[in-house]
Amino acid sequence: MAKRQVMFTFPTELIKEPIIFDLGVKFKLVPNIRRADISESKGWVVLELEGEVKNIEAGIAWLTGKGVRVDPVTGDIMEG
Amino acid sequence: MSQATTLRCRKCGREYPLEPINLCGFCFSPLEVNYDYKAMAQMVNREKLSKGPVSMWRYRDMLPVEGEVVDIGTGFTPLVKADNLGRELGLDNLYIKNDGLNPSFSFKDRVVSVAVTKAREFGFDAVACASTGNLAASVAAHAAKANMKAYVFVPANVESGKLVGAAIYNPVLVTVDGNYDDVNRLCRELTKKFRWGFININLRPYYAEGSKTLGYEIVEQLGWRAPDCVVAPAASGLLFTRIWKGLDELSMLGLIEPVNTHMYVAQAAGCSPIVNAFEAGSLHVHPVEPNTIAKSIAIGNPADGYYALRVARQSGGGACAVSDEEAIAGLRLMAQTEGIFAEAAGGVVIGALKKLAAAGIIKRSEHTVAVITGAGPRTQEILTDIVKPLAVKPNLASVEEALNVPV
Questions:
Q1: Which of B27, B28, B113, B309, CA to CA, is 20 to 30 A from B161?
Q2: pLDDT exceeds 90 at position A41
Q3: Does ipTM top 0.90?
Q4: CA-CA distances (angstroms) from residue B57 to B45, B69, B341, B398?
């Protein structure tokens, strides 16, 4: 089992959808939410995903395809 | 002995021992070094500091290091009174802090000097980073000085010419078959696998502290007074927050009066997540895809973005983005008025300063410091169209004709 700490940023049209629940069920991932801020128009969630590496990768690709932005909680490592 | 006591979560306040870790295990927010300021106040005073070495290490009692430091001669860079540029912009008390004059030509030497010192203290025999520019050069240079191995990770499609500034110090250069995001992800995984001091991952809390010295120096060079305004660029936002922390600490230690400095963050319009959040009145910095010539500050998902935003707000400062054209105009203006050639990020700072002064946000009489973080030669490819020589034959008549003046 692997763990990945990530931040999801949701666009307005996805705020009402139970995306984190769907992600967990569809890809057998356990989401552990640590911080979040959701409003009517936008939202972000900082969480840890636990599961098989390939499922984490597939789940993130699925989310990205739906329009959710996925970023590492550390911010960008690559610097100029 | 250092007065650092713990690492503390910037969000929830939980404390951790002084180890090579960077994130709070509870809320995943960044950690920062916490000090015993009462003890520190007993150790420092203006006279003692001003008699220290002419480098950033004159402030070593205020930094989280224990033993011998890894120093390549960093810091105490010039703070220049910029009267010519000030006249152009309508500012009577303008100063330029020229950190492009550090040994590897950028302010990164400040942070890396502390980080590599800590890497050695923690027993790492190798340091690593992901960078194509200033950070890579500085890490490689400090590793060379410390007799440590340096690993520099870059995307495979980066032109080899961009890596000369790092390669000269002979690090292990690793090209990754992927884009920037792939390199980011790989490096996070590498910190779990290898016992390396990863400069801006597991050493980040210590790395950050090096930036405070820029704030300390500005105050000391102004005769122990904090400026009214600071305009500084933001990439991850770390430098911006630590300049502020530096000013705040000097006040807390009783070395200067209470600080009333307005902090202005400058970003390129093609990568301005912090400015966007400031202008939208948002508390959250939404990541963006970078698209600017100012590569050294092109970070779309800034680790300290939220904290930089907070400093700009709390200090009564602001945020300003400029186009690439405005940045280049800023570079040229500073070079042609003050003789200072900065990298593209410096043009962003001068472009932002120009806008802030023109709008009356920064007032004519205010003591204002523009922070230049890197030297021009590193990004000279963005200025190729400025070379327009007069072609003459090797005789006086030809020169006279070309210059249109009698010789």
A1: B113
A2: no
A3: yes
A4: 15, 8, 26, 54
